[in-house]
Design brief:
The chain has 579 residues and is α/β, with parallel strands linked by helices. It has 19 helices and twelve strands. Strand 9, helix 17 and strand 10 form a beta-alpha-beta unit.
Length: 579
């Protein structure tokens, strides 16, 4: 709760003003029935017009103050709750940006989206209710009960007994309702996950004609959420009829006994009238408290989920004294081991001892799951090595400021991502102030200019979110151009030319020698043709180095490399290379 409330920040003033105006509103509303009783007893029954006018004006002033206070309380409550929700979303988003990959792996994407949307909205509504109704209801309950006992202690015992009965019934309903609402939030995560998975893989869904199955799957999740919500709301709906039953029973009893008191002369008509008003106020306050209990309990689950994001500590930190310059593109792995789950005993990489000179072109090849992507992720410090040391430019990557390191180690990841905006907007992710001419040169090096020049709007063509309006090969070439704009010390291509033909792949690699001659280039690939011209080739097998040499030497000495080469070239060469 502390982590969440710290985001109130500049809206603390609005919060306290809401509570202050709410208290003033309650005081005015509690006093109005008392003034009404005086008008009836001292004015109407005594035919005293000056008293009626004086008390009537006073009551109008009090009603005006109550109205003004209520309006101001509503205004400040809206400002405080909306601002609080805005701060929460911003703080969560910024927090997620600081997470390492290992931190993000602990949360599902759907779970983070739900936390920033549904959970924050529920906390916002609960907070707005708490600073108004949670102040108003207890005060109204307390002041109204005091006024009832001031008017007639014996009659007040009647509604006090009814109050206890109502409280017990409402608590029983609330306990069952809260348990159901806690299940509802888990269903929200499942529903969001289904939507996200379906939209992200819509091409696969359509290719395999699985729309009906996906529709049924979503409908099942939505129906489960519907059933739980109806069950919870059905129980909550009992609150109103139960309260009305108790209230009207209470009013009937007070009317019966009050009539006897009036006949006996121990109570006036004005007093019984104001007593009815206070009884209704007490019952309504109790009803509001029951709703606060439900909303508060629901929001506690939301707060807990939001707090998990704030409590998650980023596993990667900059050192106190950071190195702010990468000298060159040399890379050294000194007996490095790495595991995604430390202590699990399952090493993804084991005892990697590897030394790459600045400006070299290194190919990496190996089977699926052998640790190729994990290896290059350690270079830009997306993860930290479990054992050993990774060095770039002769310094441990943990000594660098992470922004400095990542600006000098440009990575084109296996999963290429483009953002909504023009082609130029996407390219300038690599260099924010890049001119259009610089972007054109980078696209020429990445062979992206070939298709960009054919587009009607050229470099101003709009790219949809995720790059859905360009092909896989076009997306890969744009991502390579974006990385080239940084002119980094180290360029890593993680299987990022798999969707382009071999001829284009060869053109891109030749262009690297001209565009970034001094940059260390690491090329992960599944096909031999993409890496055979590299200075040296690393063969990985089950997280270990199986070979590290030139193409010719590996063909002679490395069985795994030779098997891959023969399987890809036997019978006519690569898929788009002439035999």
């Amino acid at each position: 709760m502390k982590n969440v409330l710290t985001q109130l920040k500049q809206y603390k003033k609005d919060t306290f003003l809401t509570m202050g105006f709410t208290m003033l509103e309650v005081i005015m509303e509690v006093l109005i029935p008392f003034i009404t009783a005086m008008i009836i007893d001292d004015g109407l029954e005594q035919s005293n017009m000056p008293v009626i006018i004086r008390l009537g004006v006073l009551m109008l002033v009090m009603a005006g103050v109550s109205l003004f206070s209520g309006a101001m309380a509503g205004k400040f409550a809206a400002s405080a709750s909306s601002g609080f929700a805005c701060n929460l979303r911003e703080a969560m988003y910024i927090r997620v940006q600081d997470f390492s990959f290992s931190n993000i792996d602990k949360f599902s994407t759907a779970g983070l989206v739900t936390r920033m949307t549904t959970d924050v909205t529920n906390v916002q509504n609960a907070f707005q209710m708490l600073i108004r109704i949670a102040v108003r209801a207890p005060l109204m309950l307390l002041f109204s009960m005091i006024m009832c006992f001031v008017i007639n202690r014996d009659l007040s015992m009647v509604f006090l007994g009814a109050l206890c009965v109502l409280a017990v019934l409402l608590i029983l309903i609330m306990q069952k309702t809260v348990a159901i609402f806690q299940k509802v939030f888990d269903q929200y995560d499942d529903l969001n996950a289904d939507v996200q998975e379906n939209v992200a893989a819509i091409r696969v869904v359509k290719a395999y004609v699985r729309e009906k199955r996906e529709n049924d799957k979503f409908c099942k999740a939505a129906q489960g959420l519907y059933d739980l919500s109806v069950k919870a709301e059905g129980l909550l709906a009992l609150n109103n009829p139960i309260m009305m039953l108790v209230v009207y029973a209470c009013i009937t009893a007070i009317s019966w006994f009050g009539a006897h008191y009036i006949v006996a002369g121990s109570m006036t008509t004005g007093e019984i009238t104001s007593l009815f008003s206070y009884v209704m106020a007490v019952m309504m306050s109790l009803m509001m408290l029951s709703m606060i209990y439900v909303m508060g309990t629901m929001s506690i689950a939301n707060v807990r989920r939001i707090s998990e994001v704030f409590s998650e500590k980023p596993e990667l930190h900059d050192p106190e004294k950071t190195v702010m310059q990468v000298k060159d593109g040399s890379i050294d792995f000194d007996h490095v081991s790495f595991s995604y789950k430390q202590g699990s005993g399952e090493a993804t990489l084991e005892d990697i001892d590897l030394h790459i000179r600045s400006g070299e072109t290194i190919g990496i090849i190996g089977g699926t799951g052998c640790g190729k992507s994990s290896l290059v992720n350690l270079i830009s410090r997306l993860y930290d090595a479990t054992k050993g040391t990774v060095k770039v430019g002769g310094r441990d990557v943990r000594e660098y400021d992470m922004e400095v390191l990542r600006n000098e180690v440009s990575v084109v990841l296996q999963k290429n991502v483009l953002f909504s905006g023009t082609i130029l907007d996407n390219l300038r992710w690599g260099k924010e102030d890049a001119s259009e001419e610089e972007c054109r040169r980078a696209c020429e090096a990445a062979c992206a200019d070939e298709f960009i020049n054919r587009l009607p709007d050229g470099y101003k063509t709009w790219i949809e979110r995720g790059g859905t309006n360009v092909s896989g090969g076009q997306k890969q070439r744009l991502c390579i151009a974006r990385a080239l704009l940084k002119k980094p010390r180290v360029l890593i291509l993680d299987d990022s030319t798999s969707a382009v033909d071999t001829a284009t792949d060869a053109k891109i690699r030749r262009a690297f020698q001209i565009y970034i001659p001094g940059t260390t280039k690491i090329i992960i690939a599944q096909r031999i043709s993409s890496v055979q011209d590299a200075d040296r080739i690393l063969v990985l097998d089950d997280g270990r180095i199986n070979g590290f040499d030139t193409h010719e030497h590996l063909l002679e000495s490395n069985e795994i490399y030779r098997d891959i080469y023969e399987s890809q070239t036997q019978g006519g060469g690569d898929f788009d290379t002439a035999a």
